[in-house]
Design a protein that fits this description.
58% helix, mainly alpha, three-stranded antiparallel beta sheet, 221 residues
């Protein structure tokens, strides 16, 4: 039985959320799409509250840590979703109920089912309860964004970023700098920022690119 602190008025919604596409149609793919957006919004709100000094890029990176496939699969296992999944014969034989991607998708679909059944407030309450300790436990890294981005790219065997000065504005005592951080193919990611110093602008750009990279990896898995 799913260990969720919510009682469905329409149990069919919960059943649909736990029905994998390998069964046929209807399945949970549309619910997964909606649940992904709801989850992102609620987690963003929690992070905004708990980390008031974090930059936009840093908040995005923290959110990516919480809502990537592996992290959501952990939550799904805590809720025992694998025991209730409806899978086709092939997925049953291959142990699909243990697979991170299937569990994460089912969790997102269940989030949408709660929303459709009880409204946004009910969905928000369930998610905030599930993620409260996780959000609080996150620690902002002591490493600067450029270092974190470089380490992540090196670990993946990808090309390192290039930082370009696009323009500078203002008098010498109050200059601002436009910086672009770009990573070549196959990632093809870039961000443009403005800062009071080149270093500050580069750090902000690196933070945004790292957040985009983590989000791209999350969607891929």
């Amino acid at each position: 039985m799913v260990r969720l602190s919510y009682r469905f008025r329409d149990p069919a919604l919960a059943q649909l959320a736990l029905t994998h596409r390998s069964v046929g149609k209807p399945n949970n793919e549309r619910l997964e799409f909606l649940g992904d957006a709801l989850l992102g919004a609620v987690i963003a709100e929690q992070l905004f509250e708990v980390h008031p000094k974090a930059s936009e890029g840093e908040l995005s990176r923290l959110r990516a840590q919480l809502v990537n496939g592996q992290a959501l699969a952990v939550v799904a296992r805590e809720l025992a979703l694998g025991d209730e999944l409806k899978l086709g014969p092939g997925e049953l034989k291959s142990g699909g109920f243990r697979r991170d991607s299937i569990l994460a998708d089912a969790f997102e679909a269940l989030v949408a089912a709660v929303y459709l059944d009880g409204g946004f407030d009910a969905c928000r309450e369930v998610l905030r309860g599930l993620f409260a300790e996780r959000v609080t436990a996150l620690r902002r890294s002591s490493k600067d964004p450029k270092t974190r981005l470089q380490e992540h790219l090196q670990a993946g065997g990808w090309p390192l970023p290039q930082y370009d000065l696009l323009a500078s504005h203002g008098e010498d005592h109050a200059k601002t700098f436009d910086i672009r951080c770009a990573i070549e193919q196959p990632l093809a990611l870039s961000a443009q920022t403005r800062g009071d110093s080149r270093r500050a602008a580069e750090q902000d750009a690196a933070e945004i690119v790292l957040a985009e990279l983590l989000e791209k990896q999350r969607k891929k898995h």
